[in-house]
What does this fold into?
Amino acid sequence: MTEEKRKQTRRNYTILLVDDHPIVCQGLAQLIQQEPDMVVCGQAARADEAMALIASQKPDCVITDLAMEGRSGLELIKDVIAVQPTLPIIVLTMYDEMVYAERALRAGAMGFVMKRDATDNIICAIRRTLAGEIYVSKYVSARLLRKMVGNRQIEDQTPESQLSDRELEVFRLIGEGKSSKAIADMLGLSIKTIETYREHIKKKLHLANARELIQHAIEWTHLDLNG
It folds into this structure.
């Protein structure tokens, strides 16, 4: 078979990108499409847009950020897995893998890549997940193995680990300086619902009042984003 015929018969894997920063999608698309057997079949900025493109384009793999307006990346993963349980999903985010990787895997993702490591690792992550394997960093892998053998370390017992996925998302947004109204608008929820989440977070983290909640959220978010 000639090289030209091999190119014509080669299977192209289709990748859907979900990120609300166009420049990130553009750079990622350029990186992926340098691969001879990969093509970006669509880009979405919100979870609802992503679900529509998944239905119409039927991608082989989805790469999603965690933070976006409306439903979060974690919620998107759960929505996708509910209708297409075998579709490989990779999280590509700036948020700390030691906080979010296990949550993403529990939601149904098959890969987790930090944006700072994307150039080196994203293509490997795509190929591994397309082959049905899990892709995480060696640090996350070691942590998960420790938990599997029952050797839970102190680092796994942080108070924030008690928060639900939605509570953690609200906590992060509080740390980014968002008001309850702004958070409600971003997540498509009522202000009353956000206030309920705030109360749950304060109780779980043993915080006395709103001031302590805001201060703790700011400190935690700064550490999360800066390692």
Summary: The longest strand covers residues 38-44. The chain has two domains: 3-147, 158-226. The beta strands are 13-18, 38-44, 61-64, 89-93, 111-114. Residues 60 and 197 are 36 Å apart (CA to CA).
